Fold this protein.
Amino acid sequence: MTAPDPRVADGDGPAAARPGVQRDRAGLLGGLGLGVVMLAIALVVALTGGTSRAAQTHAMVEPGGTRTVEVTLADMRIVPSVIEVPPGTRLVLHVTNTDAMRHDLVLASGQSTPLLGTGQSATIDVGTVGSALAGWCSVPGHRAAGMTMSIVPASGTSGSTSGASSATAAMPGMDPTSGGTSEGAATGQASPVIDFHAVPAAGWHAYDPTLRPAPGATEHRVTLTVRDTLVEVAPGVRQTLWTFNGTAPGPTLHGKVGDLFTITLVNDASMGHGIDFHAGSVSPDQAMRTIAPGQSLTYQFVADHSGAWLYHCSTMPMSLHIANGMFGAVIIDPPDLAPVADELVLVQSELYLGPQDGVADEAKIDAEKPDAVVFNGYVNQYDHAPIRIKVGDRVRVWVVDAGPQRSAAFHVVGTQFDTVFKEGAYLLRPDNPEHGASQVLDLAPAQGGFVEFTLPAAGHYAFTDHAMVDGERGAHGVFEAY
Amino acid sequence: MLGIWSLVRFVHVVGAVVWLGGQLTLSALVLPAARRRLADQDRADLMRTLGMRFGIATVAALIPLQVATGLALAWHKGVTLASLAQPGYGRTLAGKLVAFVLVMLAAGLHGWANAAGRATLARALAVASLVGSFVVVLLATALPVS
């Protein structure tokens, strides 16, 4: 493209240009070649090393005396993931956390580092290694996410190469000492069994399902404090939930379209947490970051759209954080929403019980086998504390499915919904020309909406998840019409 | 939000824009036009003067600025020498640094080749420097979001 035009009078003449053009071509091609070489070199540097996250990193310890191995905790990995130790060699681990999140290293022998912040180190004197020894990070969810390692005796005689035996002894994710599949229940204790017919003890109070009217102001300032909270989730069954302001679900926020919400998230719990509000559009990078215990962040959003929105912890693995209580609802009224006599909020979620007073069981979550499905956090809550409704009064029930995994099919026995609002739109209004009505509000995990109905005569109107298995394991309550 | 670190990043990006834009302007706009409009000697003089000035500006201002802001940004991001070896952010940054060094090497050799009268080699090195600069920018955009 730089070839001169021979017709340009004051340019290089065609005769004079020919060798110049050839030199130019050579220069251009040579330069492009050099540039491609640069690209190749840069890409090799950028893309080599650690070919995949799952790849094992192997450390072979030299025989004799005391040997120290540097161990790094970062990126949901422990490096090296396999350490081979010759017989008689005393192993010392110098463990450093280079991650933004806190981690620790716990060995099956019971030795462990304290919880390490960014850049902190600790030392474990493992001693001599006679049999395979597993190690992992004990922060909930991190072991399942791949933060495992193993220390194995060096195989065979010194002459042999690191053989297949050591490789099989250290399959990724395997736990050579227990070989167990129930990694989630690290304590090894059995979880309590829910008695679906038991009655709560005297002094028990139901979670108030009433939706408080939206305050007149258009700006809402809320502080949500995350704490490890011992909570009863069924009669006699307690779990240490991670809660927003002490309850699961956390407080319901209520506002109108256009309102500004300024939330201060305070982490008073023992591990990192974050928050994600579906009710607003924000860049996740900063607002939804995980903050360490003792830290706080400000999360601001404008509720541009009406709906029944979920909020939940944004820290991985979210399945565990949501299952262990970190969810709640934000209700944004559609414009001109008529007042009703009774306005309620039911948040449906699942319970995957860990040991009594423990945290949720990750193995059950992975297997999608909940012990119970609940409205507002307690098994058959509103069977024990029926919600009283006056006959003929219009009732509006907002439902949000917090999951983490199961859908909801909200149904009220003995009545029909004349109004259904789901995911930002009315599916049904009382004056619809088809004279239609609805029997179930179906919600995928994280979806929300409301239904409206009246109760025609005095009686007990059960409400349930009409996925019957879930309805019979805790997602059940009663409207008592009087 | 416009904080001090967006200002540092701004200076770093502007530096890259000036470097790449300057090269593109010289190679793709000035050189072809000079070929058509100027006599051999005038063209050679003009290109030599422009090249010298661009080279001096690069050595005196651009490289110190890019190195200083780059180091500051890396420090702010918590980059360590060890982390450069780790896959992902570290390796991408390391590749970018290697490309940057190669580009500066090519640009420097381009000046030497010109002075030594080796026109073909000089042209090859100029083109290589331009292509390499694109590689630097490519890897910069490939850095995971900080």
